Amino acid sequence: MGDYPKAFSYYEKALKIQQQSLPHNHPDLGASYNNIGNVYKNMDDYPKALSYYEKALTIRQQSFSSNHPDLAMSYNNIGNVYYRKSDYSKALSYYEKALAVRQQSLPSSHPDLAMSYNNIGLVYYDTGDYSKALSYYEKALAIQQQSLPSTHPSLGASYNNIGNVYDSMGDYSNALLSHEKALAIRQQSLPSNHPDFATSYNNIGSVYYNMGDYSNALSFYEKDLAIGQQSLPSNHLDLGISYNNIGVVYKNMSNYSKAHSFFERAVQNGQLSLPINHPDLQKWRENLEIVKKKL
């Protein structure tokens, strides 16, 4: 985790000096506002992040041509905040502005174009428009295949995203194929306890679960949990999700004592990591009550 207060302090000092010594629409001021916006975004303070990103954008609109890459960066950053706030229509609008600038100003195989296609794909995926999500993810992947080494983690992320779409569409064979490609890349490019491994194992487990192949689902969910236990604090929400996933598999295999044990751990985790009325915690409690009656 970055030292955000320290970063903020230095960026603020730089900004004060620039405000005294530079014209009000100088590009360096835009860069400083953008940097402070990044800190606020990483601290999940979205109103302040938006405020600084919009100041950066205003300066960049005044001082750069309409197809300057820094304008695309500003549009993309504002889109990221709206995406995190789940304001998908505004996120899409800004991501499309970033893409339009990048299409005008960058070569067709530039990684920033892939980033824009990927971001638009994320919005369509989260709003349930799977065919559009798949189309944009595939555009991102095609650029990455041209511009990046074959084992670059960004390729792994794209295969992972494509796998998620196929899983959501019920196309489990293509989902598995894509997630296995993501896993293979991650095995070559990342340390063995990297969180992206846990993501791959979880997603492959999810596909097997959806196919009704509970023994394979269990195997991959357990690999996901093992990495989480090595790399995350014991009250991290991802561990609660892992405990619940394993509990659900055991429940479906009619192994109610093991299901009970994992649902109990999920609830204990959720009580530490979630608000008391959070839907996930309520669901985990329901799961625990259901298997209690089966014992």
Automatic annotation (TrEMBL):
It comes from Adineta steineri. Keywords: Repeat, TPR repeat. Pfam families: TPR_10, TPR_12. InterPro entries: Sel1-like, TPR-like_helical_dom_sf, TPR_rpt. SMART domains: SEL1 (SM00671), TPR (SM00028). The keyword Repeat applies. TPR repeats lie at residues 30-63, 72-105, 114-147, 156-189, 198-231, 240-273. Gene3D superfamilies: Tetratricopeptide repeat domain. It comes from the Eukaryota. This is UDP-N-acetylglucosamine--peptide N-acetylglucosaminyltransferase SPINDLY.
